[in-house]
């Protein structure tokens, strides 16, 4: 019994330290501290561990009321960091027009044409006005990127589209729209790993909406060219922060995509300073968007002057990411 008490006490102390350090992750002064930027990614795993410890305390009938209170408070704090029980109701807004946006990292379709058809079926089922895809590319032996974009646009019955990866690359971000794309601004575009961001001005009836489709720098730890070194992770974090600052300078109305950053990181904080995190505002932020590692990497951000009518997450896509779907008033 004394051993269990000691283990539980040590775990409680470590968890308190975790939360204290985690609080520094979104501060500018700690932007380059690798450990702090990685900590928020483990929030949901730590939350599960805290719940287990709380159950152990209760089941073992340990007479440690102080520890019981500590674990209860830690659980509550971790849950509240990723929860919002008073989400914005889009019906409160007076705007009459709506725009349904779907964002999905298709994971290069895992080089399988069957996955292409599954994604097409999902899009047709959701029937969005605008589709923003990341890691989109040549899913078959097409002669060029223009041909594959035209084919996919026909499959999902959307007239307007843009897929123009950096020269020499066959993957990148892509947008498909039922409404006319007036202009395209390239924020940044890298040759490797499909990291790029573009801002599109789209004409919707008598108004225009600017939407950014984003795929920020990832750690690339599964690539043979990269290693599991601190310098590799530090470089990715630094580049991701610079990409976010470039993105914010464009002042888009809506930003969607795969940000490769968890809530609580400096990247997430910078975006939340100017935009609404739709998934959080809709009270669904405990649901991870990555199917393998339990964290949120994919987001839809929108300006506060836009109204949110609905939001949901689709787990159907044949990808390691889930799809995000939001209907916005404007």
Q: What this model shows, in words?
A:
The protein is elongated and about 70 Å long. The protein has helices at residues 2-23, 34-38, 43-59, 65-81, 113-126, 145-155, 230-248, 266-274, 278-281; strands spanning 98-105, 130-137, 160-162, 171-177, 181-189, 196-204, 207-215, 254-258, 276-277, 298-302, 307-314, 323-329. Helix 3 (43-59) packs antiparallel against helix 4 and helix 7 (230-248) runs parallel beside helix 8. By secondary structure, it is an alpha+beta fold. The protein is built from nine helices and twelve strands. The N and C termini lie far apart (61 Å). Strand 3 (160-162) and strand 4 form a beta hairpin. It has two domains: 2-81; 90-329, Endonuclease/exonuclease/phosphatase (Deoxyribonuclease I, Chain A, 4-Layer Sandwich), CATH 3.60.10.
């Amino acid at each position: 019994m004394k051993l269990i008490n000691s283990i539980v006490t040590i775990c409680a102390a470590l968890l308190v330290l975790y939360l204290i350090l985690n609080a520094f992750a979104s501060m500018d002064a700690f932007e380059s501290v690798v450990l702090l930027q990685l900590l928020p990614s483990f929030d949901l795993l730590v939350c599960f561990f805290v719940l287990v410890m709380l159950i152990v305390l209760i089941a073992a009938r340990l007479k440690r009321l102080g520890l019981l209170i500590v674990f209860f408070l830690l659980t509550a704090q971790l849950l509240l960091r990723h929860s919002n029980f008073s989400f914005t109701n889009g019906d409160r807004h007076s705007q009459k027009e709506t725009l349904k946006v779907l964002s999905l990292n298709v994971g290069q379709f895992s080089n399988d044409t069957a996955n292409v058809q599954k994604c097409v079926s999902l899009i047709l089922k959701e029937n969005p006005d605008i589709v923003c895809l990341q890691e989109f590319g040549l899913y078959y032996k097409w002669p060029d990127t223009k041909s594959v974009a035209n084919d996919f646009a026909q499959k999902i019955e959307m007239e307007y589209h843009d897929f123009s990866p950096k020269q020499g690359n066959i993957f990148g971000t892509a947008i498909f729209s039922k409404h006319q794309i007036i202009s395209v601004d390239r924020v940044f575009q890298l040759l490797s790993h499909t990291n790029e961001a573009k801002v599109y001005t789209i004409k919707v009836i008598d108004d225009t909406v600017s939407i950014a489709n984003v795929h920020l720098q990832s750690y690339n730890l599964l690539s043979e060219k990269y290693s599991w070194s601190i310098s590799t992770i530090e470089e990715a974090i630094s580049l991701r922060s610079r990409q976010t600052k470039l993105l914010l300078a464009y002042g888009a109305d809506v930003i969607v995509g795969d940000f490769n950053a968890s809530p609580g990181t400096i990247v997430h904080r910078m975006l939340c300073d100017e935009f609404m995190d739709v998934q959080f505002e809709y009270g669904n932020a405990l649901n991870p968007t990555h199917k393998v590692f339990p964290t949120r990497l994919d987001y839809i951000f929108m300006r506060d002057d836009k109204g949110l009518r609905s939001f949901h997450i689709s787990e159907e896509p044949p990808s390691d990411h889930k799809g995000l779907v939001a209907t916005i008033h404007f």
